[in-house]
């Protein structure tokens, strides 16, 4: 009887040792690192890689092209900024104590909302705040939105300031964005400034495209002299293409207003 008990104990001990050995073996098997796969935090490096590959003017990655929705905190901040805008000291204090602590998404959304409402003064205030943020990177869509908002409100002096900022930061517009900005200035009665930007477009290193020229030519219908200049450039760049010229009497009612600008 005693010998039987001893044998059972020995068998159990042997099985336990075998189980431990197998567990250790399998643990060692699945934790072996090959030279090609070092033991690293892969999620961290993927995130770093995605960030470093971003471009300041990339349409797919720019935060200024994403859908901007005001959250609860953004709505509160926007309301308070409007309330304080008539009091410069209070406004500056509120920006330092509250706006500077906003999340990036909320700050971007508040700025976009002010631009949509054509609140020039507050938009320019947040424009300066954004450019001081640690996450800020020069972006052509950021500047495009500012310039188009200023064009809608005929703020030429402010346009000049923003333009100097983007030149200093070496922001480059692509041909389609140039066309959209120039058209915005034309549609809002600022042909002189529109032609200044057109000259910048002609100096761009990007190859010219026909569609932006057509967008500009359509916006230049009330301004025949400027339109002839752009038309000549278009035919020189794209000799095989045709431009539709509207009847001359279309401009008779627009001559007086077309040559002047309301600043």
Automatic annotation (TrEMBL):
<protein>
    <submittedName>
        <fullName>Pentatricopeptide repeat-containing protein</fullName>
    </submittedName>
</protein>
<feature type="repeat" description="PPR">
    <location>
        <begin position="174"/>
        <end position="208"/>
    </location>
</feature>
<dbReference type="Pfam" id="PF01535">
    <property type="entry name" value="PPR"/>
</dbReference>
<keyword id="KW-0677">Repeat</keyword>
<dbReference type="InterPro" id="IPR002885">
    <property type="entry name" value="PPR_rpt"/>
</dbReference>
<dbReference type="InterPro" id="IPR011990">
    <property type="entry name" value="TPR-like_helical_dom_sf"/>
</dbReference>
<dbReference type="InterPro" id="IPR044795">
    <property type="entry name" value="THA8L-like"/>
</dbReference>
